[in-house]
Amino acid sequence: MTTLNEDTSGRSADALRADDTTEAPTGNGGAIGGVANWVDERTGAAKGVRFLMKKVFPDHWSFMLGEIAMYSLIIVLITGTFLTFWFVPSMSESVYNGPYVPLRGITMSDAFKSTVDISLDVRGGLLIRQIHHWSALIFIVAIMLHMFRVFFTGAFRKPREINWIIGLVLSMLVLVEGFIGYSLPDDVLSGTGVRAAQGFMLSIPIVGSYIAYFLFGGGFPGTAIIPRFFTIHVLLLPAIIVGLFTAHIILVMVHKHTQYPGPGKTDKNVVGFPLMPVYTAKAGGFFFVVFGVTALIAGLVTIDPIWMYGPYEPTMITAGSQPDWFMGFADGALRLLPGFLEFTLLGHTWSFNVMLGAILLIPILWTLMGVYPFVESWVTGDKREHHVLDRPRNVPTRTGLGMAAIAFYAVLFGAAGNDIIAIKLHLSIDDITNTLRIMLVAAPVIVFWVTKRVCLSLQRKDRDLVLHGKETGRIVRTAEGRFFEAHEPLDEYERWRLVSFEAHRPIAAPAETDENGVRSKTASADRTRARLSQFFFNDRIEPVTPLELAAAHHDGQADEALAPLEAAALEDAHPGEFGGHLHGGAEEIEEHNAYAHQQGSDDDA
Amino acid sequence: MTTPSNPSDKESSVTHDSTSEAGDDRALVSLEHREGSDNLPERFQDPGLPAHIHRAGDSDEAAARRYERQVAALFAISMFATVLFVVSYFAVGNDTVVSLPIIGRTMALHVSLGVTLGMSLLCIGLGAIHWAKTLMPDTEVVEERHELRSPDEAREGAVKILADGLEGSQLKRRPLIKYTLGGALGLFAIPLGLQLVGSLGPLPHTDLETTLWDSKLPGGKPRRLMRDPDGTAIRLSDVTLGSVFHVLPEGIDATPDPNNEKLKAAVILISLQENLIKSARERKWGVDGVVAYSKICTHVGCPVGLYEQTTHHLLCPCHQSTFDLTEDCKVIFGPAKRALPQLKISVDDEGYLVADHGFDQPVGPSFWERA
Ligand code: HEM
Ligand code: FES
């Protein structure tokens, strides 16, 4: 209780007591206010809630990809918990006598039997199982698309590198989690996959067979793997995933979300809707949409009907054996790696044909993705914070590299279906596999080049739009009798979106030796950096400057006036340091020259 | 929070914009020649947020009421779907089957539960989003960002606390504590790790190198080739030209871990025309063109289950390794490196096929210890 102090010293004891009772919020409080008050007096949470509720989130469809992943994670956790009430993670075998006639009399593990029961006997069990499986797949797709969004918009740049890496770890764990979950029912398809996984482990030098025997508790299949997988699937990995996910989201809050470039949006602000009420309603509503759509798909589209596949039996296999699609790329790699990569050396077997695809591929790819943000910031020499996203076209080399990586992935993924392609197209599997081997190397290169060119042309189009405005479809006839289409200049808001980016320029290597002729310690790193920087930024298109726009507006009568401007712009796009061939802005200058007449007359019209 | 300014003087000011002030390498490339001419800025200036456009519901109360009814209708549909879910749960039988367009015959209970649950959730979501889009305030707000880096003062403070703490611990002055602590912390995880790794499973020993074919039956007789899964013995005369038998060793169900034994001992038995067989050893290890090979793929261990009659190829369905049955089951295509090991067979005095001895090499996928 408060003691008398200066503020209250003038009041009587009665008044003080009356004062005490008015602590509860008056007016709008009501029941909610009462509870909130009770909680806040014991936690001081109101400050944090106010801070959170006022947080601003920009709106864009591509920001929903991460949300879909988040909601799918929640759905997977809910339905997974349901499933644990009926699933029996045991490899003890017994004969099936349940309601499903085709399986009666067949010996199967409890894991398989309980999965059949969930599917066919437990009311609504199949729905929960299928929601679980579908939302796991939606989760993985959403993560991949979310990752593409983050990559192509440059959202991984400072200060978000840590979140990029947390995300990468999450995506890798989710693949493992998915693989293990798929294996739990102990059906013939997933059992074949687990058998293959044991083969993968055996290919690891020195410790391979130990790893396999420790994990399986002995030879394959043993009786330990399903219970162990179960613990990993429902306890270990979910705990790590939820922990990392929480860190991921906290970092999003700390960094505040990025935003797409546009008028009023800078690296120093975030423009959007506050958490309360708009964002809460939209995001909360979106959770129900994702859950509802998943439930609809799960109700209508059968997935993994294990009762049709039958229980795992070590000597049985079906044609067209494939893992769940998200492991397809690794399976495809295994199909493409030629057998000669296995050899005996020093009395031991080195099985690179298996190891490269099954053990090393994922760590290598993920490491490359993990270092990319640091490579890019080294190459650009850019150490600033970035909160405004890049439009993918404005960073052609990065976009090209990303698409090349996707092409690489796509070829591997396609290779996982080489048998199906062969059957469907009546081609020999040898030819298809050899073609895919070549494509694995060629496709990324081609896709890189094409993507980069497409980006550069899109940038040219943007420049064109800024310089000459939108086509209106109106045909105008000049006094001299020439025809042209009237162009309407962009307003300043539309224009800002197209000109607000920065075109990085290549960094030249500093002199290798100092004035005393001593070779700099970083000389070779500098040279590598300069070369990479050339690779990244030699071909580039610069944003239109006010001067160039003014020049474009100059009408055709003053043709000669353009010449010095053109020269200036050319020089600017090609500072002496890199040998004077034409690209980027220079081409643009030529093009706008070609348009100058129309634009000029347009102004007259 | 601030409201963004709406600078109208964008073309007149001659300043470096924020990007060129940043002091990174690019600023070295000077753009002066543009700046001087025409008194134009070097780059365009941000015009600020465009004017807010109002929605129908913001001013028109009739439109707003229409939106309200739409949102309420979506929520009502959700409630209705929930009721239907409950009804279906109790009313639809486990075995009832319905025929649906596109989807075909399917379990009525499952579909009705899925669709009603889906609608119940979806309509809540759509209602909330529609409500947010049409009726809730849609003016964008602007929040300031601040650089994440702590002020120097805070950084120094943090460093100082750490340094003081270190000082107070006297760790630097007392190397004995420093090194023993390091040792103890370095080692404490060993018991936990050892317990886990040491107890997870047995060492491989010879498990990967041996199969049930290596041992004789308890009576000392060689193991017969038995049909999988019936478990009946096979006479040479049963194996007609071109026929394929999936085979397991006699007595496999009496072993402690039959599944593990099956996985290693599975064999495929095929009868070929003897003159087709190119390898002398292959002929010798078979009987009249009837040959037995390990069915476990030498790539990562799937059962090599597919036999192409016309080409005499065995094909592994997992990654399409292809083995030539007429020549020691060598790999002729695919990612596997090694041939499938052959099992030497003969006919016992009752006319049944038996294995003379085990494989001459480990079956299945490659592993480090395999020479
Ligand atoms: C468990 C899987 C994941 C979940 C649930 C998740 C969820 C989210 C959510 C909800 C956001 C904010 C909204 C958005 O920008 O989409 C976000 C942002 C982000 N995520 Fe993820 N994410 C996951 C995986 C990943 C992966 C695989 C990566 C990349 C390797 C990644 C990198 C990032 C980055 C850098 C941001 C900040 C983006 C920005 O502010 O623009 N995340 N994540
Ligand atoms: S397991 Fe047979 S080809 Fe891979």
From TrEMBL, chain A:
Q: One GO CC annotation, please? A: plasma membrane
The Enzyme Commission number assigned here is 7.1.1.8
Spans through the membrane: 68-88, 131-152, 164-184, 196-217, 229-254, 283-303, 352-375, 395-416, 436-455
Membrane topology qualifier: Multi-pass membrane protein
The cofactor required is: heme
Q: What class of enzyme is it?
A: translocase
Q: What is its main location?
A: membrane
The protein's superkingdom reads: Bacteria
This protein is called: Cytochrome bc1 complex cytochrome b subunit
- Origin organism of this chain? Leekyejoonella antrihumi
Automatic annotation (TrEMBL), chain B:
Q: A cellular component term (GO) from this record?
A: plasma membrane
Alphabetically sorted, this entry's keywords are: 2Fe-2S, Cell membrane, Disulfide bond, Electron transport, Iron, Iron-sulfur, Membrane, Metal-binding, Oxidoreductase, Respiratory chain, Transmembrane, Transmembrane helix, Transport
Mark out the compositionally biased spans (Basic and acidic residues). 23-45
Q: How does it sit in the membrane?
A: Multi-pass membrane protein
Q: What is this protein called?
A: Cytochrome bc1 complex Rieske iron-sulfur subunit
Where do the Rieske domain residues begin and end?
285-354
Q: Does the keyword Electron transport apply?
A: yes
Q: Name one GO molecular function term.
A: monooxygenase activity
